[in-house]
Amino acid sequence: MSVNDPIADFLTRIRNAQMAKHDTAEMPHSKMKVELSRILKEQGYITDFSEKGSGAEATLTVELKYGPDGRRGITGLRRMSRPGRRVYRKQNDIPRVLDGLGVAILSTSRGILTDHAARRQGIGGEVLCFVY
């Protein structure tokens, strides 16, 4: 995990918290992490998220989702584009995750979007991660 890669930090903290069966994952705040949390909440992978504090002291708390039998809401998180190897895709080449059961999250000129929304708007972008 790199200090310069907030997305990898976000994904790793969520992955580790779920493996340890924690109810929440707490991390330093960034706009990118808030947008990723917003998409995860919209898609039903997490229960909620909240921001606390301001400036350098700001934190982001993500409330993780589990099924009644204890199964995780997110079974897989995979970072695609990273600082050493960026992955860009045009609208026609945006990958489908598990034949549409998962979600690819993209950074586009219109903000952070899911693969479905990017295809609908007819734009491509940097493929940040896969969630399933």
Description:
With 132 residues, this protein is an alpha+beta fold. The chain contains three helices and eight strands. Strands 4, 5, 6, 7 and 8 form a five-stranded antiparallel β-sheet that branches. It has a three-stranded antiparallel β-sheet with strand order 1-3-2, with helices on one face. The radius of gyration is 15 Å and the shape is globular. It starts with 5 loop residues before the first helix and ends with a strand. The mean pLDDT is 94.
Annotation, overall tally of beta strands: 8
Q: How many H/I helical runs?
A: 3
Domain count: the total is: 2
Give the averaged pLDDT, no decimals: 94
User: What's the alpha carbon Rg, rounded to whole Å?
Assistant: 15 Å
Indicate the low-confidence ranges by residue numbers. none
What is the molecular shape? globular
At the fold tier of CATH, the topology name of the largest domain is Ribosomal Protein S8, Chain: A, domain 1
Report the major sheet.
Answer: 5 strands, antiparallel
**What is the CATH C level class of the largest domain, in words?**
Alpha Beta
Structural class: alpha+beta
Q: Under the CATH scheme, which architecture of the largest domain would be assigned?
A: 2-Layer Sandwich
Distance between the termini: 21 Å
Q: In percent terms, what proportion of residues is strand? A: 25-35%
What pattern of helices and strands is seen along the backbone?
A: HEHEEEEEEHE
Helix content: 25-40%
